Amino acid sequence: MIDLVFNSPEEEVDFEPINKHQLTLFFKRDDLIHPFISGNKWRKLKYNLLKAKAAKKTHLVTFGGAFSNHILATAAAGAKFNFKTTALIRGEEADNQILGLCRIFGMHLIFVSREAYKNKERLYQQYFKNESQTFFIDEGGYGEDAEKGCREIISELENSYDYLFCAAGTGATAAGIINGANTTNVNTEINIVPALKGGDFLKPEIDKLLITPHPYNLHTEYHFGGYAKTKPALIDFIKDFSQKTGILLDPVYTGKVLFAINDLANQNYFKPQSKILMIHTGGLFGILGMLEKFR
Ligand SMILES: *Cc1c(COP(=O)(O)O)cnc(C)c1O
Q: Which residue in 282, 242, 248 sits closest to 32, CA to CA?
């Protein structure tokens, strides 16, 4: 049975810099779902794994960068649910904490040039065309099955909120949240914070996965220079938050989202007395490769 069977908790987070604007902050703690099959990566894998089992496939093949939370989640999920796993990793042979954990979970890693990586379908054919047991999962888990899993972030909610915030990389999680809000008639303003520079490119990626159009805001100005890029202001903010709450944020995704909430609160973006929910999408092992920034 493929399930990790629990609804991640919703909890109030006391953080004075936001509370002082008469705002209450809540986290949906998807970071607590599983240490390695973390956060939205579990949501995005779930229906892929069910489909792979139903089709009697035994080998998951996926794609990502050398610090990908999705790669680690696939490695751990494969081990837990009895699939062989292979990942095609973008760029020259690398070794880091994330890939080390993937190897412990038994994942086979294949490093491919950035040029070859661009055409994933061709790569898949090249390596696996004679295998009948493989199941293709796109980079970052992006796709309809990922979106479907992420709708459950909304259907699980026990309380209502005025504003919801979530990070975006491929946009599949955002699309799931928007579809979830749409189908359950949740009347919350949805705010998406791209982790990459030029985040407007996400709009078509999100819209492609929407069941019907539904309003949402993209806050494209909180990328801090681009994907996995940081600035001292972001690092200091994350440290301050973690020291005040005991909750970790990563500088790639969730740190940028809470920074955005805090910055918008300072600009009086929110109606006073509002309840704000941030989806903590997990992925905290990514911090291990960035610890020197926190010195
Ligand atoms: C992968 C990831 C995201 C981005 O999810 P998408 O569905 O690709 O937009 C957000 N937060 C964390 C912590 C992640 O690991």
A: 282
